[in-house]
What does this fold into?
Amino acid sequence: MTEVAAENQSDASGDRRVPAIAGYPPVFLPDATRATVRGVSAQDLRDIGVPALVVNTFHLMRRPGVRTIQSCGGIHRFMDWDRPIMSDSGGFQVYSLIRQNPEHGVIRANEVIFREPGTKERWRLTPERVVQLQFQLGSDIIVCLDDCTDAGDDAEQQRLAVERTVRWAQRSREEFERLLGGKHSRGRQAPLLFAVVQGGASEELRRECAARLLEIGFDGFGFGGWPLTADGALLEDILRVVVEALPADAPKHALGIGAPEHVVTAQALGYTMFDCSLPTRDARRGRLYTWLPGYPEAAPRPGVPFYRTFYSRDTDHHADPSPVDPGCDCPLCTRYSRAYLHHLTKVGDAGAERLSTLHNLRFYARLMAALRRAEQLLQ
Ligand SMILES: [Zn+2]
It folds into this structure.
């Protein structure tokens, strides 16, 4: 049996939530923001052992509209994905757009109003509405609307964001319970509800936010806000504070993290779930990850280099018959040479992006498998 077949089989318990939650961490969820990982099919993703995906409620609400997805049988059927789907609330994207340009909308105590640039269309997001939309999508993991701050926001703004995040989480929980009572028994297929811990760089606010969310009760928790310093280093101290403020067995999602070395560090701190657009974005730009000798058989450790980057557009590769990574079992490395990939990029063929995306996501799938193996050895 191939490595992927073994991973896929360990995944086939029939409970769509298993890989993300029960006994399967850590897990990396590629971003399928608009119900697609750009350029690759759901079958492609299954073939390389991707266990779960993240979609974005805000973007899907705008296009194609949640009603369209519902009429096509829900988000799993719509995108041909039968494994777990987490839907992000979209709060982060709305706030980024509004903060960049206040004409895009306004954030109020009880709602967020977003105005579509160029048209007069107006979207209203409330904590209840965001939970309803995710129920309508049919997500396996639902994320509460939170108030996301900027790293540079002052203490008062951070305090306000925590108050709002906790209040909105409470309302999300109530709406979630109401919808669950109507449509689901609390069985295996009921979705899970995650809340997001805010508080910026303040340890005190982070601890308080986590404690108040714990009191309300959630199935899992996300680390909210920007997780990096201005020069791109991981904010390890504040990430650790949030882990320590939550129960050891609670799923902890490091939202938007990240680079392979950041995933390794955050996993060592106690985070169990990751999503990031980096590997797919890098792939489209011709930036691929390749293993250093000995990996991923050995589990990567924080602070120890375990991969290097390969640039497919680099002219050095124009006649190179070797695969991008001889140790990789992805469709690119098992079938094609560096010269062929370079050629595809030079002629602007979409196949270059597809094969590079599959390579990078396979790299992440194997990274998580290596971290999981190391974790199991410790138990
Ligand atoms: Zn590969």
